[in-house]
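ok new one. same drill as before - structure tokens go in, u give me an amino acid for every spot. 154 of them this time. try not to just spam alanines like last time pls lmao
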């Protein structure tokens, strides 16, 4: 297996875990939790889910840029030689990383603190911010997947 092949496999797995995890949480777990669980239980559930999911997102944040740039320089030699769809994927990936960093260091931190204090309204406000940002990141992630897999055809 070449370094580019290995980079591609690790890149794809990282994207699947991150985007797939967000898609599952946003489209399936969130509506069922909102429908069936009272706010205190729902907020505690989400803190637990995020604590399990976010370490994998951190790994994705490490591997996606690392393997992406390894492929860029291994295949095209520089950013200048890279096709437009790769630049689009790179730019949107950076936006996704910035959104995640905000979620992790701001509303998720406040959500954890609110759950510890049993301040359910504050926890709910922060979970709602996270919901919106995860929805946005999921949509961007799906666009990135389309660009990555079909971009060379445009």
């Amino acid at each position: 297996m070449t370094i580019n092949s290995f980079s591609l496999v690790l890149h794809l797995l990282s994207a699947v875990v991150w985007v797939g995890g967000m898609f599952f949480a946003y489209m399936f777990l969130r509506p069922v939790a909102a429908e069936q669980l009272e706010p205190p239980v729902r907020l505690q559930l989400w803190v637990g889910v995020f604590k399990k999911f976010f370490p994998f997102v951190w790994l994705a944040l490490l591997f996606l840029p690392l393997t992406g740039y390894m492929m860029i320089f291994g295949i095209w030699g520089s950013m200048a030689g890279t096709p437009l769809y790769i630049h689009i994927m790179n730019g949107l990936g950076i936006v996704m990383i910035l959104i995640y960093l905000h979620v992790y260091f701001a509303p998720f931190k406040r959500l954890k603190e609110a759950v510890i204090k049993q301040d359910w309204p504050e926890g709910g406000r922060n979970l709602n911010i996270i919901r919106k940002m995860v929805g946005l990141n999921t949509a961007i992630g799906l666009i990135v997947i389309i660009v990555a897999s079909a971009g060379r055809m445009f």
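The mean pLDDT is 97. and btw The chain has five helices and no strands.
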